[in-house]
C-alpha cells in the first residue's frame, strides 16, 4: 500500500455500473503497522543525584528500509524523564536523577509516518 502512512485506513471502491450491471460500493479497513524497528540504548550503570547522565538511543529498521526519524522518549519505570529527536538514527538524552536508589530505564521510539514504535530492553541504574 505505497503512499499510505502507518495506521488504520478505510479504503472505498465505487463502481458506476453498466448496461448489464447495477452500480455498487464496497469498503475495507486495513491496518498498516509500519516498518519494524529495533530500539537499543546505552546508559551508565551508576549515577549521582543532581548530576546529569547521558543516555544514547539508537533506532534501526530492516536492511534496505528508510532510516527511522522522529522522537524517542526516556522512561524511569513508567515516568517519562526525557526526550530527544533522532539524527541519523541516534539520539542522546540527558537525564538528571532526583532520587537515590535503583532506577529502571527504557527508551521508547514513538514511530513516524512509515516506521512502527519499539521499546528498548530495560537497563538498571543505581543512583547514590
Q: Can you tell me about this structure?
A:
This protein is mostly beta strands and 128 residues long. It has a single domain (37-127), classed as Immunoglobulin-like (Sandwich), CATH 2.60.40.10. The chain is 0% helix and 55% strand. The protein is built from no helices and eleven strands. The chain has strands at 7-15, 24-32, 37-42, 46-47, 53-61, 71-76, 79-85, 90-95, 101-109, 118-119, 123-127. Strands 4, 6, 7, 9, 10 and 11 form a six-stranded mixed sheet that branches. It has a three-stranded antiparallel sheet with strand order 3-5-8, with no helix packed on it. Strands 1-2 form a two-stranded antiparallel ribbon. A hairpin with a 2-residue loop joins strand 6 and strand 7. The radius of gyration is 22 Å and the shape is elongated. The termini are far apart. The mean pLDDT is 92.
Question: Quick gist of this model?
Answer:
With 128 residues, this protein is mostly beta strands.
- Overall 3D geometry? elongated
Distance between the termini: 51 Å
Q: Encode the helix/strand succession as letters.
A: EEEEEEEEEEE
- State the domain count: 1
Please state the second-level CATH architecture. Sandwich
Q: Any idea what the radius of gyration is?
A: 22 Å
CATH class: Mainly Beta
Derived from helix and strand composition plus strand pairing, the structural class reads mainly beta
Stated plainly, the CATH topology is called Immunoglobulin-like
Sheet-strand content, in percent, reads over 45%
CATH superfamily: Immunoglobulins
Count every helix, treating DSSP H or I runs of 4 or more residues as helices.
Answer: 0
Global mean pLDDT: 92
Specify the biggest β-sheet.
6 strands, mixed
Number of strands: 11
Give the low-confidence spans: none
Amino acid at each position: 500500500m505505497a503512499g499510505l502512512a502507518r495506521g488504520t485506513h478505510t479504503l472505498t471502491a465505487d463502481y458506476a455500473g453498466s448496461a448489464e450491471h447495477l452500480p455498487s460500493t464496497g469498503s475495507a479497513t486495513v491496518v498498516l503497522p509500519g516498518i519494524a524497528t529495533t530500539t537499543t540504548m546505552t546508559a551508565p550503570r551508576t549515577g549521582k543525584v543532581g548530576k546529569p547522565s547521558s543516555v544514547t538511543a539508537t533506532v534501526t529498521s530492516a536492511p534496505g528500509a528508510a532510516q527511522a526519524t522522529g522522537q524517542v522518549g526516556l522512561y524511569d519505570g513508567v515516568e517519562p524523564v526525557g526526550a530527544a529527536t533522532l539524527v541519523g538514527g541516534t539520539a542522546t538524552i540527558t537525564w538528571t536523577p532526583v532520587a537515590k536508589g535503583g532506577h529502571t530505564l527504557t527508551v521508547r521510539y514513538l514511530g513516524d509516518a512509515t516506521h512502527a514504535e519499539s521499546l528498548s530492553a530495560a537497563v538498571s541504574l543505581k543512583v547514590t
